[in-house]
Amino acid sequence: MSGVSKPDDKTSMNSITAPVKQPAKTHTRRRGLPTSRTWLAAGQWFVTLLLCAFLIVPVVMSIMAGLTVNYFKGVSSGLTLRWLGEVWTQYHSSVFLSLEVAAMTLLITLLTGVPAGYVLARSKTRLSRIIEEFLVLPIALPGLASALALLVVYGGFTMFRMSVAFIVVGHVVFTLPFMVRAVAAVCASSDLRTLEEGAASLGASFFQRFVTIVLPNARPGIVAGALAVLTLSIGEFNLTWMLHTPDTKTLPVGLADTYASLRIEIGSAYTILFFIMTMPLLVAMQWLGVDATGQRSAGKQRSAASRSKPTPTSTP
Known about the structure:
Blueprint: H1 9-31, H2 36-67, H3 82-122, H4 126-140, H5 143-154, H6 158-161, H7 164-189, H8 192-201, H9 206-217, H10 219-235, H11 238-243, H12 251-261, H13 264-288, H14 295-308
Helix pairs in contact: 2-13, 3-7, 3-10, 3-13, 4-7, 7-10, 7-14, 8-9, 10-13, 12-13
């Protein structure tokens, strides 16, 4: 019809594309500015690096003090291994004693903590929860309080009080909850009951089920608990300081003596020795992917089991 005007093609195209071009220009202008998420990530990195420096710099300075000729002059005085040699000459017996105590503590916690963790994981009664809380109680109490309790009960037995076994008992009281919780966490997460029932139906005894089913499935928790027990036993000071005698001086107690009575280079060299003993255990914990409770190992075990399950296929 002649009375109706047709819209111009160019005008209609411009009216459609014009609103689209404007946001594109705005987006281009904003791309050069950091977003709030970028600022947040940068702030998190800054705080993390600052905390790492706050924790690591004192350790590095202490190590350097043990390797310098004169701490007050710094590295300019020269580097030496003299202080490490003196520490080893005077306190090598404390090093071997700490390793002996840690080994005996680990053996006792393995023999008692693994069965206890398995029983607590299988039992769902209120009594088992109460026992578990009592086992964790030494962690909540200060080490001095636990040592005082041991002295009150067993201090009258002179031979036992003066022996290394007294320190071992204290370390077992302190480290046993870590082994029990690590094993219990793994045993509770894995389907041990179904596996044991299947083995029992085939005629396996309890001992056979425990050795062939429970222990292999609880291995991540046992490794986690063992590493935690070793590191805690070697580094325990508060409890050991009250229980030790001049003949049963462990590594942390010797470290306190060096800082209290000798020059700072000797104490720093002792710190290096302590560092050399504990770092391999900490690296092993990270390399094996375990923690003090066994939760991370249990999670890895569950994820590996889920990946090994066959995917269901739809039937036509």
